[in-house]
Amino acid sequence: MKKRSVTFNHNPLLAKGLPVWRPRVVLLALLCGSFALVARAAYLQGVNDEFLQAKGESRYARVIEIPATRGKITDRHGTVLAASTPVKSIWAIPGDAKPTPAEVRKLASLLDMDVRDLNHRLARDSDFVYLKRQVPPEVAEQVANMKLAGIHDQREYRRYYPGAEVMSHLLGFTGVDDHGQEGVELAYDGQLNGKPGSRRVIKDRRGQIVEDVESIRTPQEGQDIALSIDAKIQYLAYTALQHAMETHRAKAGSVVVLDSRSGEVLAMVNAPTYNPNNRESLSGAQLRNRAVTDTFEPGSVLKPIIAAMALESGKFRFDTVIDTGNGRMALANSTISDTKPHGRLTVAEVIQKSSNVGVVRMAMTFKPDEMWQVYDDLGLGSSLQLGFPGEASGRLRPASTWRPIEQATMAYGYGVSSSLMQLARTYLAFARDGDVIPVTLTRSEVPQLTGRRVFSAQTARETRAMMEMVTQEGGTAIHGRVPGYRVAGKTGTSHKLEGAKYTSKYIASFVGLAPVSDPRLVVAVMIDEPTGKQYYGGQVAGPIFSNVMAGALRALSVPPDAPITPMQVARSKEELAAQGRM
Fold it and tell me: Helix H segments across 67-122?
C-alpha cells in the first residue's frame, strides 16, 4: 500500500495573509517605548537627578557623628585633675558578621568578654550592636587587624583622673557616654560637655568609609573648669585622713579646708574612697561625699557660737564668772552634766574646758527665736548652694517647737545637725571678724571683702581668743597646735543617733582657724566611729587638723605669727635608762 505524504502547504490558516499595518504598529510601539526610556533616563540623570542620588545615598551615604572633647578640670594652679583620652568602641552589623568559632574565641579574648555573650550579641536581629565600649586604642588595632567582616570600630573618649583616690569624691566620674555621673563632673556637666559635630561620608557594603563627602556641623569642644582646689593641700588632707583612719580603725571620715578670704574650698577629702579610673567593684559607702551629703550632730563645736552671742548681747564679758557647780545642772526632768566638775569658770574658760553646764547657763538667757536666728544667719539648716549633687541642708527645727531642754542641748550641739562643709563655713564668722560669705568650688580671682554680718568684729576677735585657749595647756585640743602659728579651734565629741536612740558610738570632730593674728584658713575634721581607745575630738581629730593646717599654711607661704618652740619627742624606756634618767 502506497503511503500518502502529508504537507502543510494546503493549511487554510497559513494560506491566509497578515495585515500589512500590524508589524508596523508593533515596531512603532517598540520605538516609542525605547524613546520614552531614553528620555526618562536622560531626565533622571541630567535634569532631575535628586531621585537617583537619594536612592544611592540611602544605600551608601551616611551621616556620622563627630564626638566633641569634654572640657578639662584643673586645680587653681592649672594642674589637670580630669581629662578625656581617645578610645575606641567595637561594634558590629550582626547580619554581615560571620566569624568562625576560632575567630570568635580570639575576639572574645581581645575584648575580655565571655564567648557566649559575644555569640549572643552577634546573633541579634539588628543592624547595629555594641560589642565593647571604651576599648584602648591598641586593643582596637588588634581587632582591626583580624579584618572580620561586619566588625567595626568608632572613636570615643574616656575620662582619666590622674589624682585617682585623692580626688575621687570631689571630681566624681563620667559614664560610658562621657556624661557626668557624680561630683563636679555632674555639677558642671552642662559646661564640660561639648556639642558633637557631624559629617557626611560614603561607605561600601562592608561599612567601611571610602569617601569623606562634607562636614555638616563642626564639633564644639567642652569648656574647661578651674576649681578652687589646691592639689598639694588636697593631697596633704588625704594623707592625714588615711593615716587617722588606720590608726583609730574608724568607719569613715572627712576633711575640709577653706580660704577665709575668698570662701574657696582648697581641699575636700573623704574616706572610704575609690579609684574613679577603675570602678568595677564599688559600693554606696565608697561613693558618698560625706563632707557635703552626710549630716551629724556636731556636739561641742557649736559652743563658741553661744559664747559669741553672750558677748554680743552685753550680758556677759570675756571674764564674766559662771558657776558650773559640781558639773551637774537640773533642767525640767533632765540633767545637764560635764565630764568632771569645774566649779567657777570665766566665759573664756567655759569654752576652753568645754563645759556643757556653763554654755547652757549662757544659752538659757536668750529666747529660742534669738538663738535660732543666729544659727540661721550662720547657715545651719540651709543649703550651701554649691551646686554639688546630693548636698544636704542639715536640720534646724523652727524655734516655736523648742522645749527648754531642747534649747539647752542645741547649745552644745545636740538636736541640730549639719554637714562638715556647713560647720567649716560657720567658722568663717570667727575668721573674718564677724561676717560669713558663700563658699565656692571654683577659683575666685577677687577676695570677698564683705559678707553677711552676724557678730561685731570685737565679738569675733574675743571669741577667737577663747578658742585659742582650747589649744593651749588646760584646753581640750593641745594636739591641735601648729608649731610657729597661733591656732584657734573647738573640739566636738558626740554620741551617734541611730533610729531614735543615742548609741555608744562616737563622732569626733575639730574645727579651727589659723593664724589667729590674721586668719587665712579654716580646717574642719570629722571622724566617724573611731574604735580604738581614743574617741575624743581633741585626741582623734585634733592631730589631723594640726597636720593639715601646718602643711597648708606652708604651702601658701603664710608667715608664722608665733615663736617656734621645740617639740618634746617621746623616748623609750631603754633610751631614758641609757641616759641615767630612770
Answer: 101-110, 115-122
**66 close to 198: Cβ distance less than 8 angstroms:** yes
537 and 458 within one domain: yes
Same structural domain, 179 and 308: no
Strands 334-337 and 61-66: unpaired
Grid cell locating 266: 582648697
CA–CA distance, 218 with 197 (Å, rounded to integer) = 5
So what's the pLDDT on residue 417? 95
Which pLDDT score, from 0 to 100, does residue 134 have?
Answer: 80
Catalytic residue among 89, 260, 300, 355: 300
Low-confidence ranges of the chain (pLDDT < 70): 1-18, 44, 48-67, 197-217, 564-582
In tens, the pLDDT along 133-152 reads 888 888 888 888 888 888 88
Whole-number pLDDT of residue 349 = 96
**Angstrom distance (rounded) from CA 219 to CA 190:** 15
CA distances from 389 to 76, 171, 282 (A): 21, 11, 18
Query: Has residue 485 been placed in a domain?
Result: yes
User: Closest Cα partner for 175 from 72, 271, 84?
Assistant: 84
- Residue 164 and residue 541: Cα distance in Å, rounded? 25
β-pair partners for 199: 64, 215
* pLDDT confidence of residue 70: 87
Active-site annotation holds for 300: yes
Distance separating the N- and C-terminal Cα atoms of the chain: 161
Closest CA to 300 of 352, 252, 257: 352
Q: Whole-prediction pTM value?
A: 0.80
Specify the pLDDT at position 569. Answer: 46
What grid cell was written down for 269? 577629702
How confident is the model at residue 445, as a pLDDT?
78
Q: Burial, 456: exposed, middle or buried (Cβ in 10 Å; 0-12, 13-18, 19+)?
A: middle
Which DSSP category does 44 fall into? Answer: I
Of the three residues 191, 211, 226, the one that is the final residue of a domain is 226
| DSSP helix/strand/coil, 170 | helix
In a domain, 35, yes or no: no
Residue 48, helix vs strand vs coil: coil
β-pairing, 225-226 vs 73-74, is: parallel
The total number of structural domains that make up the chain? 2
Q: Strand ranges (DSSP E) for 108-224?
A: 129-135, 151-160, 197-203, 209-217
- pLDDT of 579 reads 43
- 82 in Cβ contact with 193 (< 8 Å): no
Mode of pairing for the β-strands spanning 151-160 and 80-92 = antiparallel
Which stretches does DSSP call E strand in 72-196? Answer: 73-74, 80-92, 129-135, 151-160
| Structural domain boundaries enclosing 88 | 65-226
How far apart are alpha carbons 44 and 364 in whole angstroms?
95
Number of H helices, E strands in the chain: 22, 19
pLDDT at 58: 57
How far apart (Å, rounded) are the C-alpha atoms in residues 362 and 429? 20
